[in-house]
Write a structure and sequence with these properties.
Blueprint: H1 3-15, H2 26-37, H3 57-76, H4 78-84, E1 131-132, E2 137-138, H5 150-168, H6 171-174, H7 180-183, H8 191-202, E3 224-226, E4 232-241, E5 247-261, E6 272-284, E7 298-307, E8 335-336, E9 360-361
Parallel strand pairs: 2-4, 8-9
Antiparallel strand pairs: 1-4, 3-5, 4-5, 5-6, 6-7
Helix pairs in contact: 3-4
């Protein structure tokens, strides 16, 4: 070290270098020691910590009394309590059922044994959680199939659902009017279907093979009227490539119609649910291979299963069994659940809650 550096070192040692650490004073050391001994964070000068309330024994007694009263009410009036909280009363119960995107594996669970009313026509029924009208018919995503590209398949699926809506949900058709909108979607060159339509819609006593109910939902306006304007539905469309490259769409849909006698306008009027399940197979044909018209399809097959719609000879209209809907037939050997969509449709059984030549419905 040179003499100049040694001299600067001695001078800085006496005067103190800039930025050098300074030893804390005795007072500062005392404050730091007290803070270490009291680790709780000090409150800000504008902060406020409310005092913790003391528990009162009276509060425990009141809580216990309230709980006892609640348990007593639930035990004596269980259905009313369920209704207060939106529980399963069949009309306002539970969350809506998820859309049916695949074949179901089991029937819906049993609900409460409550009868339908004018105010709640779907009470006590699985249909209370189903969607309204066309919203209950699930349409799958479209993909190129057969002679159609994806956009054409999407249009065919939409028109297939339009046919179901026009045939089973149109208010005029439900009152017995001619299903003109639905007929306009049928291939006019399909002679067997056109003959079926002519016979079905012109006869007052159609043959079973020419029953308009196979495709269209109809009630006699002088006998029955729909309760409200909501029809519950559940079902779906599927599709595949059919013959000659056609796009074959299959619809399997259940419709639930709450109806009441046409001449009974009282508050206590009887409400009967006519439950209809249809399976319709539609072929959207390649016009280069099949004679057809744009925007129309050919029917491959159609089948019907119904409950509370009549069990005698076909009349062309549903005939709800007013006054006898809650009676049971003598033959209990063949019982079916009209809400069970896990099984294939059985068109040989005209299910109803009444009638010796019909199957017995386990619920409606």
């Amino acid at each position: 070290m040179s003499d100049e550096e040694w001299e600067r070192f001695l001078r800085e040692s006496v005067t103190g270098a800039a930025g050098a650490p300074v030893e804390p004073s005795a007072r500062a050391r005392e404050v730091q020691r007290r803070l270490r001994e009291r680790p709780r964070q000090a409150e800000g000068w504008r902060s406020y910590s409310p005092a913790r309330p003391r528990r009162s024994r009276t509060g425990w007694y009141v809580t216990g009394l309230v709980a006892a009263v609640v348990l007593l009410v639930v035990g004596v009036f269980p259905q009313q309590v369920v209704g207060w909280f939106g529980g399963s009363d069949g009309g306002r119960d539970g969350a809506p059922s998820a859309a049916e995107s695949e074949r179901l594996r089991e029937a819906p669970g049993a609900g409460t044994a409550l009868r339908p009313t004018l105010a709640e026509p779907f009470r006590g029924s699985p249909a209370a959680r189903w969607a309204d009208g066309a919203a209950g018919i699930t349409v799958p995503p479209a993909r190129a199939t057969g002679w159609m590209d994806a956009a054409q398949v999407e249009r065919a699926l939409r028109q297939s659902r339009d046919f179901l809506v026009a045939a089973g949900l149109d208010s005029g058709v439900l009152r017995g009017e001619r299903p003109a909108t639905a007929i306009a979607l049928l291939n006019p060159h399909q002679t067997d279907v056109q003959e079926y339509l002519r016979r079905a819609l012109s006869s007052t006593a159609p043959a079973p093979q020419a029953d308009p109910l196979l495709l269209f939902s109809r009630f006699r306006p002088e006998q029955a009227r729909l309760v409200g304007d909501v029809v519950k539905t559940r079902g779906r469309l599927t599709y595949q490539e059919g013959k000659r490259g056609a796009v074959e769409v299959t619809a399997d849909v259940t419709f639930v119609y709450p109806v009441t006698p046409a001449g009974d306008g009282g508050r206590d009027a009887e409400v009967v649910r006519t439950i209809v399940r249809r399976k319709v197979v539609m072929s959207w044909d390649d016009p280069a291979k099949v004679i057809t018209e744009p925007g129309t399809m050919s029917l491959v097959s159609y089948a019907l299963d119904m409950t509370n719609g009549g069990c005698s000879a076909p009349t062309g209209y549903f005939v709800p069994p007013f006054g006898t809907a809650h009676e049971q037939p003598a033959d209990e050997a063949h019982r079916v659940d009209p809400y069970d969509r896990s099984k294939p449709i059985d068109s040989s059984n005209r299910t109803t809650a009444m009638g010796s030549d019909c199957a017995t419905a386990t619920r409606s």
